[in-house]
Amino acid sequence: IVLHSLNGVLTVLIIIGMGAFLVTPGLV
Predict the structure, then answer these.
(1) How far apart are CA 23 and CA 28, in angstroms?
(2) How far apart are CA 7 and CA 27, in angstroms?
(3) CA distances from 2 to 6, 8, 18, 24, 27 (A)
(4) Number of helical (H) and strand (E) elements in the chain, helices listed first
(5) pTM of the predicted structure, to 2 decimals
(6) Measured between alpha carbons, how far is 23 from 16 in angstroms, rounded to an integer?
(7) What is the C-alpha to C-alpha distance for residues 6 and 2, in angstroms, rounded to an integer?
(8) What are the pLDDT digits (tens) for 1-28?
């Protein structure tokens, strides 16, 4: 359960990170 939860958190962080990486150049 802990590993699954950690994997889910990492997945969300990666998605948010990629989203921020794609959006930031447009703001700059």
Answers:
(1) 9
(2) 30
(3) 6, 10, 24, 32, 37
(4) 1, 0
(5) 0.54
(6) 10
(7) 6
(8) 577 788 888 999 999 988 888 887 776 6
Q: HSE of 25 in the Cβ direction (CA atoms, 13 Å)?
A: 4
Distance CA 14, CA 23 (A): 14
Amino acid code (one letter) for 4:
H
The torsion defined by the Cα of 27, 12, 14 and 7, in degrees rounded to 10, comes to: 170
- Give the span between the Cα atoms of 19 and 8, in whole angstroms: 17
End-to-end CA distance of the chain: 40
